[in-house]
Amino acid sequence: MSWVLIALLGVPLAGAAALLAPAGADTAAAGRLLRLHGLAVSGVTFALSVVLAAAFDYADAARMQFSTDLAWVPGLDLRFHVGMDGISLPLVLLTTLLTFLCFVYLCWGRADRPGQLLRPEPGGNRPRALVFTLLILEMGMIGTFLALDLLLFFVFFEVVLIPMYFMIAVWGGRARRAAAIKFILYTLLGSVVLLLGLLLVWAQTGTLDMVVLARARGTGMSHAVQVLAFVAVGIGLAVKTPMWPLHTWLPDAHTEAPTVGSVLLAGVLLKMGTYGFARIAIPILPGGAAVMAPWLGAFAVIGIIYGSLACLAQRDLKRMIAYSSIGHMGFVLLGFATLTPVGVNGALFGNIAHGLITALLFFVAGAIKERYGTADMPSLGGGMLSRLPHLGSLLTFACVASLGLPGLAGFWGELLALFGAFEPAAGLSRPLYLLFMALGGLGTVLTAAYFLVMLSRVTHGRPTETVHAPVLAAVGGAGGDRPKVALRVGIAGVRDVSGYELAAWVPLIALILLLGLWPKTLLLVTGPVVRTLLGAP
User: What is the pLDDT of residues 204-225, one digit of tens each?
Assistant: First the structure.
């Protein structure tokens, strides 16, 4: 079955390469065919990931399965080494599912609602480039979760930056260029520091094999080198997570990115940073992890509180969801900082739960912006449950899942991270971690507060009669540069939730319910790997 891993990388790459062939003008009909091409390629990729999940040996989830180890650059002993265990399997499934659902949303997300006729379809004038960008992005994301060579991991880690930059810069909103430049500068700076840390590990151990390094658990590196390498690797990963105070690129990127860009950015790209902590920083550099864990926990809880307070101050719906990601990823980092099986399992569970819930939130927020012409919460006028009851109900469901309602996926990751902080690993200060737990608990209260305040403004109350919508000006810049004017729109004439939207959202809803009601679905897969990585019995 090792060929399936190669196919997972090769299918989206081949699908993107096929788009480089000379073709005619990008007419509306050609654009539809191009999006269907992307749907077919991403569908095949998702099917391959399901095949891997079906063939995976869950009784031995800690073992690296379906491995392929080939010479890449023999002169430098660089190898194309990929494989999958219980940590990478859920993330690969999440990546292929979200990419496929994004293409479902794009293929049928046409102007079948009056509100969409007021502005061009996202990427409508560059469908070939849009499909190409998404497929390259998918290949890079999958490769990051499969790589078992440090340099190969870094290559895939970097591959995703360019397509995401263009996703924001070409198909984003009014301030898309500034947001894209900020995104690329932050992430490239973090990548430089990450590369230095990985090269330090290689210089000390003589190998880039992540499996060998994880088994050695720091052998061959002095305590000081492990601390230095952990700091370098941790900073590089923290930028992409993002961890406070390296988070400032995220709200702008999310606010300006198109819907599918926000979905993949929040649902997958942020997980690449936290995955690096589980795959590289903690198991390969245990001495550095033990020293820096309290600092990681401190930054995590600051991010939880900061993100929640920032959400309370937001007017833009997408920007509020972006800041909420900072808080939620803080819980993931807190789980890692405990260095316990309970905490790390909570972090990995929170990773997947956040990917599903926040993807649904950004899908719904994008649909709201399409219908109303704005994501400004006061301008939405309230009363969405009476205007568009199904859309309002889906927004409510996604919000209560994100705030951690028991029975939904968002609950377990935060709970396990707090449990891990209650009893941290030996050698860590329990009073300090009890403080972290208390601050994290306060963060859950603030999370409920900002989501309930938002729902009271958007879904409840008496609806107003006007909204703001962007109108194409006779003159002016392209895309998001066009000016906005107030326009009276008959909301009663706008469809509530379309069939293609349900097709893209229902799988996320089902998985949020499944993981919330049956958390063992995921914990039985990650648990054995976590114990192995931590050296626990």
Answer: 998 899 999 999 888 888 999 9
